[in-house]
Design brief:
The chain is of the alpha/beta class. The protein has an eight-stranded parallel barrel with strand order 1-2-3-4-5-6-7-8, surrounded by seven helices. Helix 2 crosses helix 4, helix 5 packs across helix 6 and helix 7 runs parallel beside helix 8. The chain is elongated, with a radius of gyration of 23 Å. The mean pLDDT is 96. 3-methyl-2-oxobutanoic acid binds next to strand 6.
């Protein structure tokens, strides 16, 4: 990725090409090597190592608690598993808001230490200069508007955004400001479907929705949500394609039962030894 290739639709060209063809972009989160392999083998177009990892794999109660160092460990693992499609690293809470210098330094770590093709950050307004600074440093940026999980401080804060005129207009303006600043794509989270449509119609860069209706240029879901890999209630916009948590509990329970009943391991699950060797060992005991 060269410095002059990082603005707008030139920054993540494979996504821009899908948008131009009208082919929906498939983005999925991943937080480790096997999930990266699965995402790529399943045909995803781009992988996001989201700060949702804070809750899905690290067990924190919000995304505000995860650090750059923690996310970098996960991002490097995903990069080892994802070979042919871009990966986007999520700048966590506290790693970019304060200054352009901090934002650029954090973004650089995701590219240099974890091999990211782009970084994502939440918000517009005061974050627009941060976006410009990161892009100016040669790193593509994906924006994020609508519901901004890093700003949520209580469980009821996860409600949809943009249901009132002023807020809807502000979200549209935020998305346009991020495009204007040079973002490669924008994630739009938890807004009325019609608002997702309006944003996708106005922007010329890929608009990737999560709970933003069917008319955006692509969709993103959290890996653990779509696989049912975890406990708790999912957001309205999640469709579950598996019940991994229940299946895994069942599998581990069956194995535990086999151990307790002496059914595991079977003969063929152990290593053999030549009887002469065994006899020699026994004779020396
Ligand atoms: O962290 C994340 O998983 C995200 C998605 C919800 C887009 O930002």
């Amino acid at each position: 990725m060269t410095a002059r290739m990082v603005r707008g639709e030139d920054a993540l060209p494979s996504l821009a090409a899908l948008r131009r063809r009208g082919s929906p972009i498939v983005m999925i989160t991943a937080y480790d090597y096997p999930a990266g392999r699965i995402a790529e083998q399943a045909g995803a177009d781009v992988v996001l190592v989201g700060d949702s990892a804070a809750m899905t794999v690290l067990g924190y109660s919000s995304t505000r608690e995860v650090s750059v160092d923690e996310l970098l460990v996960l991002t490097r693992a995903v990069r080892r598993g994802v070979r042919a499609i871009p990966i986007v690293g999520d700048l966590p809470f506290g790693s970019y808001e304060e200054s352009d210098e901090l934002a650029v330094a954090s973004a650089r770590r995701f590219v240099e230490e974890a091999g990211c093709d782009a970084v994502k950050l939440e918000g517009a307004g005061e974050m627009v200069p941060r976006v410009r600074a990161i892009i100016g440093a040669g790193i593509p940026v994906v924006g994020h508007v609508g519901l901004l999980p890093q700003s949520v401080t209580s469980p009821d804060g996860y409600r949809a955004r943009g249901r009132e005129v002023e807020q809807a207009l502000a979200i549209i303006a935020d998305a346009s400001a991020l495009e204007e600043a040079g973002c490669a794509a924008v994630v739009v989270e938890a807004v009325p479907s019609e608002l997702g449509t309006l944003i996708a119609e106005r922007l010329t860069i890929p608009v990737i929705g999560i709970g933003a209706g069917a008319a955006t240029d692509g969709q993103v879901l959290v890996y653990h949500d779509l696989l049912g890999y975890g406990e708790g209630r999912a957001a309205k916009f999640v469709r579950r394609y598996a019940d991994a948590h229940d299946e895994f509990v069942g599998a581990v329970r069956r194995w535990a039962e086999d151990v307790r009943l002496g059914r595991f391991p079977a003969l063929e699950e152990g290593y053999g030894i030549d009887s002469a060797v065994l006899n020699a060992v026994r004779s020396k005991l």
